[in-house]
Amino acid sequence: MEDKQTFIAEARREQIIKAAIEVLKEIGYVSTSLAKIAKKANISTGLISYHFSGKEDLMNNTLMYLVEQEWEFINKCVIQKQTATEKLTAFIEASLAYQVTNKANNIALIEIVFNARTPDHTPYYLLEDEEEDLKTSLLGEILRQGQESEEFGDFSPQVISTIIQGAISESMLTFQNKLSVEEYKETLIKIILRIIN
Question: For the chain, where are the alpha helices, taking DSSP H only?
């Protein structure tokens, strides 16, 4: 019985988080309220308050959910590959595919990171990462594996990781300017492989 209740509570939390993502996409972080999220989810504001202590708690949980969703999508593609080159290619391809197929998630993530504040009013994007996020950690691991196996040359994994992630983030804007995802992906992979070999 307890397992069923836990499952129901988790499903309800996910329903609320998905509604929050839609509201963030439609009206942005500043205009988002628990009442608007409740309306989108077709539930009462009280039910949100039962699962989350307030807007900040809901936004933090939404951010964690978004980060995990993206990492799971990318990791599933990467772990099927053997060599570091194959893994790096899969990482870039999966990251770009995720950007294209999950626009609402990307917008919600950006809205939270650039608008949410800590209790001392520090924007999230200015926070020092205590530990690397899952995606950065996965990419760093691939780059180091390639260097250790001598599949890749000598370079700073941190710098290359930043270049790759910057190019992937920037792609959200690029695809709207009529450059195809395929063209972008192929060119990016070619450039990165040339730099690291």
Answer: 2-31, 34-41, 45-51, 55-78, 84-101, 103-115, 134-148, 157-174, 181-196
